[in-house]
From TrEMBL:
One of its GO terms (molecular function) is hydrolase activity. Keywords: Hydrolase. This is N-formylglutamate amidohydrolase. It comes from Sinorhizobium medicae. SUPFAM superfamilies: Zn-dependent exopeptidases. Coiled coil: none annotated.
Length: 264
């Protein structure tokens, strides 16, 4: 049986001090899961992955020489951007689609997916962040890349991109300032989602240790083809390079989370 890795690490140049993350980069499933009882068309939808984010992350990684970690399994199998104790870690229904392979699901299978996919992905994120910190001799800057649907429940979303965050503004404010200076795009602030989610990737790897970070959401119709991805890579690369040059974003500084007190 062919080995299935739950993550891909793009090595980049860790001395640059910048790490890119793409939790929902791919819509793949290991062969033993089939299609989780869903039609093939479900895996072309946002319920399976973040459309456009894999090629966008790859282009930004090359342009910025930044290490990147990509999730290599569909969020329908297990969501890497949720804490292990989050009830939505494995979705039984996603945007109206019942997932037969997840409902019902035995406790043993739930735990197996955590150990086989979720933990190795986060282990790769931890290792890449640690390697980048060691190479640069300073705290890295972490940027997480996601995409969102153009509309939800029939209501159009006006934002071209959005920045999600919890309570550490260090990277967020200069990022939003530069995006808004573009003049051609509408930028959301914690829209259409709130960036404060206890146990998610940013909480675990950035908020808890005090690493400056931001989560960028790009509207999916804008990066659904090669030209769109190239345009957004060209837009974001110089902005992220400018952010990475700010010394104040390479200092460990823990901010209180809006989700409550840290456990340690």
């Amino acid at each position: 049986m062919q080995h299935y890795s739950p993550y891909e690490i793009i090595e980049g140049n860790p001395a640059k001090g910048l790490v890119l993350l793409a939790d929902h980069a791919m819509n793949r499933l290991p062969a033993e899961y089939g299609r989780l009882g869903l039609p093939e068309s479900a895996f072309e939808r946002h319920i399976a992955y973040d459309i456009g984010i894999e090629p966008l992350t790859r282009q930004l990684s090359v342009a910025l020489e930044a290490p990147a970690v990509l999730g290599c399994f569909s969020r329908l199998l297990i969501d890497p951007n949720r804490g292990e104790d989050d009830p939505t870690l494995i979705m039984k229904i996603s945007d109206g689609a019942i997932v037969p392979g997840n409902h019902p699901i035995a406790d043993e299978e739930w735990q197996h997916r955590i150990e086989r996919f979720h933990r190795p992905y986060h282990g790769a994120v931890s290792e890449t962040i640690a390697r980048t910190a060691a190479a640069g001799g300073r705290a890295p800057l972490v940027i997480s890349l996601h995409s969102f649907t153009p509309s939800w429940k029939g209501i159009a979303r006006p934002w071209h991109a959005s920045v999600l965050w919890d309570n550490d503004p260090r990277a967020v404010f200069p990022l939003m300032e530069r995006l808004q200076a573009d003049g051609e795009i509408v930028v959301g602030n914690n829209e259409p989602y709130d960036g404060a989610l206890r146990g998610d990737t940013m909480y675990r790897h950035c908020m808890t240790p005090g690493i400056a970070h931001a989560l960028i959401e790009v509207r999916q119709d804008l990066i659904a083809d090669t030209a769109g991805v190239a345009a957004w890579a060209e837009r974001l690369a110089p902005i992220l390079a400018e952010l990475n040059d700010l010394p104040e974003l390479h200092v460990y500084q823990r901010h209180p989370s809006r989700t409550g007190a840290y456990e340690n």
